[in-house]
Structures are given as C-alpha cells and as structure tokens.
Amino acid sequence: MLLGYITVIVAYLIWGAAPPIFKWALQDIPPFALAFIRFAGASIIFLPFLFKQDRRKVHVSDWKHIVLGGLWGVAINVGAFFIGLEFAPSINVHIINSMSPLLLYMLSIYILKEKPHAQIVKGMLIACVGVLIIVLAPLFDGAKSSLVGPVAPEMVFLGNMLFVAAVVGGVLITVHNKLVSKKISPFFITEVQFIVGALVFLPFMLVEQGNFNIATLTMQGWIGIVFGMVFSSALAYAAMNYGIQKIPAQDIGVLTYMMPVVAVLVAIPLLGEVPDIFFVIGTVVVAIGIVISERRKRFGRKT
Fold it and tell me: CB-based contacts of 258: which residues, under 8 Å, 6+ apart?
C-alpha cells in the first residue's frame, strides 16, 4: 500500500506541473498535434505490455471499461484540457480539478459500494463553491491575456468550462479502471487507452496540418512533446494505474490537492501567471472545504 501511495504522488507531481508546461508548449504546436504525438509516442513505449497480458482473461465487459476509460480519461480529458489552455489561465486547472474528489466519491459510493460519510460530502460541496468562484470569475473580471492574445471574458469562461469537462473525464477513467484493475495488468490498460486516445486525436490533428509543420518546431514545442510523451503520459499513467490497484479510490481523490501548489510554482516563472483576487478567494474556500471533509478521518468522527 505504501508503494501505491508513492506512485500516485509521483503521478500527481508530474500532472501538477503539466498545465503551465503544456500551455507554454502550445505557443509552438497546435493542441491536437501535441495530443496525438503525446499518446502515439507513449503507446509505442508501452507496446510490449500489450502482448504480455493474456487477452483470454479480458472479457467483453472488461474491454468496455478499458475503452470507455480511454475515451473519457484520454480523449475527452486531454482534448478539453488542451483547448481550454488556449483561453484560460493554466493555474485554474487544478483548482477546478478540486471538484473531482466529490464526483469520484459519489461514484465510488454508487458503483464501488464504498461507505458514505456526511461530513466528507459537506466539505467537498464547500470546496465546489470555491471552484465555482474561479470558473465564473471571467464574467466579472474582464478580458484576460491568453495564448491567442486578449480574449473576451466569455471565452475565458469557456476555457474554464472545458477544464470542468476534463475533470469529468478524469474522474470517469478512474472509476472504469478501478473496476478492472485487480485482474488486468495496469500497463495493458494504459497501453489500450493510449491507443484509443491517439486514434481519436488523429483526425483532428490532420485538420490542423494546414497550419502546422513538425519540421518548424522549436525547442519549446519539443519539450512539450517529450514531457507529454514520457512523463505526463507513460510514467504518470503507469504510476496512477499501479496506485489504483493498491489504495482506496477516495484516497486517490484526496491526493489531488497537491497539484494546484505545483502548478502555481511552475506557472509564475514560466508564464508569468499570478493568482488574482478571485483565484485567491476561490482557493481559500476550496481549502476550507478540504479541511472540513478531512476532519472526520483525522479525528475519527463518526458522521
């Protein structure tokens, strides 16, 4: 179990730094090109694991969960995330992602039959109010600078909503993978889901080809590709799928709270993104919700 926690923490440290690094790289490469190269390359790295799994043990229902996990957790999660980065600040990603433990908790109760606790739900709902402050902030705060220059508040709001869609995808892949991870290799699951993601991104990348030539990429774009392919895809997904086997789904959700700190620490020097008042207020409300939801575990309260 200790190794499970360590691998999940490693995954979240990598994913914590991912939004500002990818936003920086997207100044040099289109979103679907980066997404396709990222997952096609990672699927090549994981290709040997595709043949190590005894596929006779993978039943039709297992394939359904693996493929659906790939569609939600790779195609929708990463596609919405990359497009959202073109308009909204990268530091918003993980604060908005703070609503994922509530969704994961509810689904773990309904699907995985884990025991519900009222205090945890109350704290997570408060955290979601903080997320809502950040999501709606562009409608009250005016235009923001983005990858495509100054954009209307409505477009920044759209970027935030795309981050919300990415959260839903990230939660659903965790649930689907949890249902099959005890009997199927996490590396096999990861490889199949990478292939699913790459196939979904391929036609969108082909549409982008009129405005993109890989031969013209600078070091900025290549760093994004290598980080996405090796670290954010191969290493982080494998670490997460291993951790899912070892620790409860609820604890996986709690560990996501380290990612906003990592994102801000990377975004300030890399992109010059400084938290505004809405971000600060929303983050404080999220933190209050987290403290409330975690008090039950720390002090052994029965609620």
Answer: 9, 12, 13, 16
The answer to the question of residue 263 being in a domain is: yes
Q: Going by DSSP bridges, is the β-strand pair 149-151/144-146 parallel, antiparallel, or unpaired?
A: antiparallel
In a domain? residue 294: no
Cα distance between residue 93 and residue 98, in whole Å: 9
Task: Name the domain count of the chain.
Answer: 1
C-alpha–C-alpha distance, residues 11 and 231, integer Å: 9
Q: With respect to residue 216, please indicate whether it lies within any of the assigned structural domains.
A: yes
Query: Which helix (H) or strand (E) is 123 found in, with range?
Result: helix 118-136
Whether 183 is in a domain gets the answer: yes
How confident is the model over 64-76, as pLDDT tens digits? 999 999 999 999 9
Cα gap 232→12, rounded to integer Å: 9
Question: Measured between alpha carbons, how far is 5 from 16 in angstroms, rounded to an integer?
Answer: 16
- What are the tokens at 84? 């959202």
What are the φ/ψ torsions at residue 133 (nearest 5 degrees)? -60, -45
Could you tell me the residue range of the domain that residue 190 belongs to?
A: 2-115+145-274
The helices-and-strands tally (H runs, E runs) of the chain is: 16, 2
What is the value of pTM for the model shown? 0.82
Q: Indicate the pLDDT class of residue 290, thresholds 50, 70 and 90.
A: confident
Euclidean distance between CA atoms 90 and 264, whole angstroms: 9
